[in-house]
Fold:
Amino acid sequence: MPPEPRTAIATVCLSGTLEDKLAAAAAAGFDGVELFENDLLVSPSSPADIRRRCAGLGLSIDLYQPFRDFEAVPPDVHAANLRRAAHKFDVMAQLGTDTVLVCSSVSPDAIDDDELAAEQLRALADLAQQRGMRIAYEALAWGRHVSGYEHAWRIVRRAAHPALGVCLDSFHILSKGHDPAPIRAIPGEKIFFLQLADAPRLPMDVLPWSRHHRLFPGQGDFDLTAFTGHVLAAGYRGPLSLEVFNDVYRQADPRPAAVDARRSLLALEESLGVRDLPAAPRLTGHAFAEVVTDPGAGAILASLGFARTGVHRTKPVQLWEQGEARVVVNEGGAAHGAVGALAVASTDPARSARRAEALLAPVLPRVRGPREADLASVAAPDGTQVFLCGDDWRDDFVPTGETAAGAGILGIDHVALSQPFDHFDEAALFYRSVFGLTPSPVAEFAAPFGLVRSRAVAAEEVRLTLDSALVRRGEWAPAVPEPQHVAFACADALAAAAAMRAAGAPLLTIPANYYDDLEARLDVPPGLREHSVLYDRDDHGEYLHFATALAGTRVFFEVVQRIGGYRGYGVVNAPVRMAAHRAHRRAGAPAKTAV
Ligand code: MG
Ligand code: MG
Structure:
């Protein structure tokens, strides 16, 4: 295996003062930083102080950035630009850094003349070389005359100066759809710096796209494994450095944000074959889901045909089962109304735990009783506890001898974890990298109380959906705040709905308008309207599903039937379910299920 590359992060990625950012980058294990000039300008620390602080934290300053609007200008502007550069080199000397990023000019003064650009960059490189420094020239996607990396490389090659090379930024290259393969033809020693950013594919202008929506590798739609592979194949041996401008990360606590950033690089390095991590074992299913709720969840599960099959040996929690569906009900927890934990069955729980640790997932301390299984667990970004189980966890429960009446439930189909908006992208990366789940494309839908963003992360037997209300602000909150649900699979949703309703299950009532529209659009199976069962179909099959009222403040249960190879989660029906939840609460639902 080739040597592990060094890693760096641009200070502009993180929130806070420069001192906050440096501490967070060091704590997350980065080797170095790109120092964003504005972070220095607002700092009370002198450049020499920053140099000492970085050294104390074990961080190198790998790049000073950015120097704007330099090349291809009239002679008087060029002379002024060289004076500007001399001052920057003084600052860099005090910082102890030797590489400055020069991004292609956006100035109206700039002239479309490669020879002039090369000549002026050569003069700048001369000045840098005298100071033992070097220039990394980057094509901005919105540069006035230079907007592609191949163009920037032509100019650098024309200038032919040892202190002048290119900086490659994945966003500027991939956002414009430029083919990264020709990077392989650039001599590695002329690639002075590499900046990595992912992004969702958005049909918008590249400047606001870059400024607001960059993401860490693995969170967006760009193929950064292929991109970085080309750069390494060219012979680049500098750091893999993150440069991500993102509205959420610029506001978020820099400490977890830096960990998230570093996790993205660890996963990228693994995909490039330059970092050895314990491989993700196959996950064979949902071992159980734990709901922390006010008293009431047990009664709802009973009405769905579940039996209370076990009582925990030491904790106030009960195990409810039907088929292969297992729900641990914790009615005494501090946080009322949440899927407090989910447990996934792994073919190698110990290796799953080692992988989680290697990917910087917080491994949670666990108090272990004398007869209790030693379950490793990690905290997901939103605090959900994820257990990695074999099959010995059931020994923790004393059997009650009760058996399920049964209403056709076979197992857990998926668990829906709404995410605080700030954790949405982070959560997808977490589940993808730590557990080897595959994210689906992001969908957005208009719900009664605002837009909701949704994506699934799934493997064959383990499926999670991550929903998030967009920019949730203000006091008016008629929706269930961050609703979560456990969805059970069944083979006949209509029969299950009938049996459960007869047993007193608090199932939602779906309005006639929904069925009038559905029947006008699609040839649907009979009985949906009668049983308030929702319907969806895709290219692979059909989906029937229905939901209960809330158990507590946030959590409800869903029952789903997949017909054929349906791959979705009925997201199209989420708005009608949300409105039905509110109608149910307003109709004076039983006290334990109302909000
Ligand atoms: Mg850049
Ligand atoms: Mg669902």
